[in-house]
UniProtKB/TrEMBL annotation:
Its cofactor is Mn(2+); Mg(2+). Residues 26-227 form the Nudix hydrolase domain. This is Nudix hydrolase domain-containing protein. The keyword Nucleus does not apply. PROSITE patterns: NUDIX.
């Protein structure tokens, strides 16, 4: 049986949660964006070993929804929050926050900005000291996303995003996220850069190569990242990925005791750890 073993304190925590002796931590709304470039390649960041969550893992850009991400002042172009809510089975306020968080976090963690001066255009270049100052101000929350866009005369381009998946962190984790996954193409003229912060390394990789590296123990991937890369591995172009009509199904790995050992498990066709 596939799955990921839960040794020590996590194993005991899992038993307590299953027995009803311990309540799971509530999951925070979050957004993740798979940035794609022709090849097909994806942008991955390696989280610093010092991070409290997913330390050392290669992940896509993303993070928690900031309460200000739900601000109606955010200039908006493309599918409405209500339309996104229908896709992700969320109310309009949460959907607005998810899309804003997706665009904001992508800019914070990669330098890529899915916004433009008009509903039909996109920023061509986000390099330079002024952009870096804004990025850092967004990270330390001294600048709201709405004010950032307004100050530059930009509108969020929700039409540049496509829905991909919905994952909830297992109940055994101390930090839990209710995360919607998006995919988006790297806008023409823009380029990612090593922006530091929570990551100590960034790379572009073909999905199949990243999966193989994870299988060989060369890199560490969290289950949602592993599965998403597996789903993307057979696409030949970015356009093919963006054209996919996805039915968004909520996935939350569970906890089970297997031969006396506590494990995180998902489903029979997905062994993401030692069997």
């Amino acid at each position: 049986m596939g799955g990921f073993p839960l040794p020590g304190e996590f194993g005991e925590r899992a038993r307590d949660i299953l027995a009803g002796r311990l309540a799971p931590v509530p999951a925070r709304d979050a957004a993740t964006v798979v940035i794609l470039r022709e090849g097909v390649e994806v942008y991955l960041l390696r989280r610093k070993a010092s991070m409290a969550f997913a330390a050392g893992a290669y992940v896509f850009p993303g993070g928690s929804v900031d309460p200000r991400d739900t601000d109606h002042a955010v200039a908006w172009a493309g599918p409405s929050p209500a339309e996104w809510g229908a896709v992700f089975r969320a109310d309009e306020k949460i959907a607005r926050g998810l899309v804003c968080a997706a665009v904001r976090e992508t800019f914070e963690e990669s330098g890529v900005l899915l916004a433009g001066p008009s509903p039909e255009s996109v920023v061509a270049d986000t390099t330079g000291d002024d952009w870096e100052a804004d990025r850092l101000a967004l990270i330390d929350r001294s600048l709201s996303f709405a004010d950032f866009l307004d100050g530059r005369g930009l509108v969020l381009r929700s039409d540049l995003l496509r829905p991909w998946a919905h994952w909830i962190t297992p109940e055994v984790e101390h930090r839990r996220f209710d995360t919607r996954f998006f995919v988006a193409a790297l806008p023409p003229g823009q380029r990612t850069r090593d922006v530091g912060g929570e990551a100590d390394q960034v790379t572009w990789a073909r999905p199949a190569d990243a999966v193989d590296q994870a299988k060989n123990g060369q890199i560490f991937l969290m289950p949602p990242t592993y599965r998403t890369l597996g789903e993307l591995r057979d696409y030949r172009t970015v356009a093919e990925v963006l054209a996919v009509e996805r039915e968004i199904v909520t996935l939350m790995p569970g906890v089970a005791e297997v031969d006396g050992e506590m494990r995180i498990v998902l489903d029979d066709d997905y062994g993401f750890g030692p069997s």
